[in-house]
Design goal:
Length: about 375
């Protein structure tokens, strides 16, 4: 016999779980379904950087609210507000950094430029080759490997149903939605697609073609090192994020691409991209030359051609919704999930959503 819910959420990443929490607070009875474990996708393998300095200007209000949400989650997600520095090593990078950070400061991020002396006092182990550095006291990080455990606990505490290792393989429309899953049939009056890099095949189950593409980002971690840096460190190009965890390990990311597709399963680390990523990290923090890299891994991140989120009604399917493709989605997820929940509950979201039926023109600012 199939079980019936007010809404089925396909995808138990940060987007699906955060939305389910708001829906339940609003009186709906959701079920969250994941093909693996909760938080096993991008939400559980990302670099965990919560940096306003690397967010898109238009998404700044969402990122600022997201930061408050992370602060409230605190230790349970390994949250640390460390402040962050973004570095430029060349005149061109310094120009780029000034231009971008001015726009972000204008959008409300507390970003300012620091002198060489201030940078050295705060971060003495950084290279002396820094031409310009911006600082944001709000920046920090969380531990993405705690995402699944955290949300599993929150869903359980709130009495929200969830099923893991339960891929949705078919969706039929009659009165509401009839889902075929590995855990048996499920019926729901509404549907939220929150399947991350797998949004395209999941939307195709409803005959909808979403212009979702996937990137495969790489993250590396070193062995434990003596204290090297107390802040989140980034680079003007966005090609480096780095932070040292309380246990001494240094996590290095920056969106360098590995190999593979979400459909094929696990991705592969590519030496061609992990090496320059680590070289840039070492350039910024020369003491890393002595560090051994313990592990590099990849994860799939979704986007659409204009690099803005998909957040709203699923085009052409009544009572179906979609949330995903949020750049910096780990930072923004807990907040935009709440907005999505409000929208589905029929409430006016505090900030506007991003209509999935819009025209997608490339926009990379
Ligand atoms: C390596 C990497 C580093 C990143 N670093 C950062 C960072 O430092 N800071 C930041 O803010 N953002 C970062 N991001 C982006 C961020 O991780 C993502 O934007 C965010 O986690 C996306 O959340 P999601 O819930 O949409 O997707 P996911 O977390 O991928 O969740 C989607 C879920 O859907 C499930 N699913 C798919 N198909 C089905 C199906 N048919 N049936 C049931 N379940 C299904 C999957 O198993 C998965 O758990 C990074 C991303 C990657 C990949």
């Amino acid at each position: 016999m199939s079980q019936e819910f007010d809404i089925a959420v396909i995808g138990g990443g940060i987007m699906g779980c955060a939305t389910a929490l708001r829906l339940s607070e609003g009186g709906m009875r959701p079920i969250v379904l994941d093909q693996g474990d909760l938080g096993q996708g991008a939400s559980g393998v990302n670099a965990g950087t919560l940096s306003l300095q690397i967010k898109r200007v238009k998404l700044m209000p969402y990122a600022l609210k997201g930061h408050h949400a992370w602060e409230a989650m605190g230790e349970a997600v390994g949250f640390h507000k460390t402040g962050g520095y973004t570095l430029a090593f060349t005149e061109r990078e310094a120009g780029l950094l000034h231009e971008r950070q001015a726009l972000k400061a204008g959008a409300g991020a507390p970003i300012s430029f620091v002198s060489e002396r201030e940078l050295r006092a705060a971060e003495p182990m950084l290279t002396r080759k820094v031409l310009a550095a911006s600082h944001c006291p709000e920046d920090g990080y969380a531990n993405s490997s705690l995402t699944g455990q955290y949300y599993r606990g929150r869903l359980r505490d709130q009495g929200i149903a969830y099923r893991e290792r339960c891929p949705v393989t078919a969706i039929d429309r009659d009165v509401g939605f009839a889902l075929t899953t590995a855990g048996g049939p499920i019926r729901a009056r509404r549907l939220l697609l929150a399947a991350g890099a797998w949004l395209k095949p999941v939307a195709a189950l409803l005959g909808v073609d979403l212009p979702v593409r996937a990137r495969i980002n790489t993250v590396s971690v070193t062995e434990r090192m003596p204290p090297l840096t107390a802040s989140v460190i980034g680079h003007a190009t966005g090609l480096l994020t780095m932070k040292q965890k309380p246990n001494g390990t240094v996590l290095v990311g920056g969106g360098w691409q590995g190999r593979g597709t979400p459909q094929a399963g696990r991705g592969q680390v590519s030496a061609d991209s992990v090496m320059p990523n680590l070289a840039l990290a070492q350039y910024a923090l020369p003491a890393l030359a002595r560090a051994r890299v313990l592990r590099s891994w990849t994860g799939f991140e979704a986007n659409v051609p204009d690099f803005y989120p998909l957040a709203g009604a699923l085009p052409g399917v009544e009572d179906a919704f979609v949330l995903g493709c949020v750049r910096g989605g780990y930072t923004i997820g807990p907040y935009i999930g709440g907005l999505m929940g409000d929208f589905i509950l029929g409430r006016e979201p505090e900030l506007p959503l991003f209509d999935p039926a819009r025209d997608f023109n490339e926009d990379t600012i």
